[in-house]
Write a structure and sequence with these properties.
heterodimer, A: alpha/beta, Rossmann fold, two-stranded antiparallel sheet, globular, B: 299 residues, alpha+beta, nine-stranded mixed sheet, five-stranded mixed beta barrel, 6 helices
């Protein structure tokens, strides 16, 4: 069991939304579970912005805190979670890696095993995000270009959703925040490589995380979590993590959809705003 | 010193608590005073967490920039206010976490539930923070139902072996957006619970009932990531127990194994005496009016 190898540590799975994070979580679950995976029972440990976890560890009703106050406490909360756990915690996030008012990040480096950062062509993210959030592509392109963009957005200083406000920044900020100057190892995985070259990509990730699995075990986990398999499970059983029941979470899982989905104006806006980072990762 | 009634207790306090019910008594159950809060606790079974420490009889909590608190032996609360803070915030967390710690130290079980009285019996609406307990309570109040308690209700087994409940204090806390949706004159935005929080206290001193009232039904509200209709079903006894355990307010503050046994006894009794319903509430496409309408069918 890979989790037992690294007690008292956290593995962060970070990404802009709709970039392969859930797929990778399903892969790790299959890896830990002899090639079996149930999408509604993934063996990873939730999301950093979950309010319930915060409340139980802090003893405080976080809805009575200001969001900035809560953000300053998250680092301690996850240090405690790691230290009191006898196995590796695998925690997802869409937050950018930012520095809070007190100079710390919400991600405690002392207890971090390492992080994976999943990146996907932003032109493809736009359509996927629009479907997921039930917004227009236009709205999603704007979100992706807005450096103050948040998820679990709570208007008028309200602080009452199931998740704390997620400060994800614009698409480029999200990427560069995780790939520059983070004080622990961050391994970048391109979504497109997961699709086109799964064995090599997942094997490399397994080795970067210092997990010990044979090529056969990795192949089995890849097969169990192919896009078609995950989509089939969602159709059959639903998926607890999606925002709304009537929208498919695992939508097309392909690359290059943007050519059909985005208007020339939308394409230009994304490329003008994110061209530098896109070219760094081979998207233009 | 100020004298109040809250959570079924006589409270003697150095600071004013507009949230609590003024009362007269000779002997206080608990006292609240400003003073020095110890940095650390010691003793058997000490649990240390990032902002708190817990033993069987004592508890300390540190909310940076707000206040440090001590709760001991079910009797004493000491608070040390941060310079940049104000009493409103000090009171807010004291009436939440710290009162839960005091109640557990006294062997009481607070449930995370709002409540109304119907036909002389209690109907509880339980569920996690943010699920809509207070808004539902306010909505039922608009329809003329008798409000009993907001957010917390203390349950116990009385002499006749009946489960009864005691209210917390005569104030409902409502978010600004809930107030706007409720759209009625009875509620107002006069009393902010924290200076920068759009959440407002609504007082109901006049109608407040501090008696212990027998329990009849519990509705457990649970958000679902679906669109559309509210679904309500009565739970079978095995499922009831599992669900009820999760509704104990700040259950992690139970530092006493004997109390866990007591909690087991109480919840078993609740499961056998009360009708318990699970209310699945869609996170999108539903509103408080729809929820109220559906719940009313089962009241």
């Amino acid at each position: 069991m890979l989790k037992k190898l690294y007690p008292h540590k956290i593995l962060w799975l970070a990404s802009y939304p709709k970039s392969g994070n859930t797929w990778f979580r399903a892969f790790l679950s299959a890896l830990m579970n002899d090639g079996e995976v149930a999408i509604n029972k993934l063996e990873t440990d939730g999301i950093i912005s979950a309010r319930e976890t915060f409340d139980v560890v802090s003893d405080i009703d976080s809805m009575d805190l200001y969001d900035e106050e809560a953000k300053l406490m998250v680092n301690n909360i996850y240090t405690h979670i790691a230290q009191s756990s006898d196995s590796l915690r695998i925690i997802k996030t869409h937050d950018a890696y930012l520095t809070e008012k007190n100079g710390t990040s919400i991600f405690p480096s002392e207890v971090t095993h390492c992080a994976f950062y999943f990146i996907r062509n932003p032109l493809d993210v736009a359509g996927s995000l629009a479907s997921h959030m039930r917004l227009s592509i236009e709205e999603c392109v704007n979100i992706m270009c807005d450096n103050n963009a948040t998820l679990a957005t709570q208007k008028n200083n309200l602080n009452k959703n199931k998740q704390f406000r997620v400060n994800m920044g614009d698409w480029s900020t999200n990427v560069t925040s995780w790939t520059n100057g983070v004080p622990f190892p961050v391994h970048v995985i391109r979504y497109e490589d997961m699709l086109s070259n799964p064995f090599e990509t997942f094997s490399k990730a397994v080795s970067q995380a210092k997990f010990n699995y044979s090529p056969e075990e990795i192949s089995r986990a890849i097969k169990a979590t192919s896009f078609d398999q995950l989509k089939k499970q969602e159709t059959q059983f639903g998926f607890v993590e999606k925002l709304t029941r009537d929208v498919q979470f695992f939508r097309s899982g392909t690359m290059g959809n943007w050519e059909k989905e985005l208007s020339p104006v939308q394409i230009t806006k994304i490329m003008q705003t994110h061209g530098d980072v896109m070219s760094q990762y081979g998207y233009i | 010193m100020h004298k109040y009634w809250g959570f079924g207790l006589h409270i003697l306090s150095e600071i004013e608590f507009p949230e609590l019910l003024p009362a007269d008594f000779e002997e206080a159950d608990i006292t609240i005073s400003a003073g020095e809060v110890p940095q650390n606790l010691s003793g058997d079974g000490l649990i240390k967490k990032p902002f708190s420490q817990l033993t069987k009889d004592e508890y300390i909590l540190n909310i940076k920039g707000v206040c440090r608190y001590y709760a001991g032996y079910g009797k004493n609360v000491i608070f040390e206010q941060a310079e940049e803070s104000e009493l409103l915030s000090v009171r807010l967390f004291l009436l939440g976490t710290i009162m839960a710690a005091i109640l557990f130290q006294r062997g009481e079980i607070p449930m995370h539930a709002s409540a109304i009285i119907k036909d002389g019996k209690l109907i509880l609406f339980a569920g996690n923070s943010g699920v809509g307990k207070s808004t539902l309570l306010a909505s039922l109040s608009n329809l003329g139902y008798e409000v009993f308690s907001d957010d917390v209700c203390v349950l116990k087994i009385d002499k006749d072996n009946t489960v009864t409940g005691t209210a917390s204090y005569p104030m409902i806390k409502l978010w600004e957006d809930a107030l706007d949706k409720l759209n009625v004159g009875e509620f107002n935005k006069d009393y902010k619970v924290r200076p920068q929080l759009p959440k407002f206290g609504q007082f109901f001193y006049q109608t407040f009932n501090k008696e212990t009232i027998p329990l009849d039904k519990i509705f457990i509200l649970s958000p679902q990531n679906t669109v559309g209709e509210v679904s309500i079903k009565q739970l079978e006894s095995v499922a009831v127990f599992k669900q009820l355990e999760k509704q104990v307010y700040k259950f992690q503050l139970i530092g006493n194994t004997q109390l866990r046994a007591k909690q087991f006894g109480l919840l078993s009794k609740v499961a056998s005496q009360a009708k318990v319903y699970e209310v699945l509430r869609p996170t999108r496409g539903s509103n408080v009016q729809l929820l109220t309408q559906e719940i009313e069918k089962y009241l």
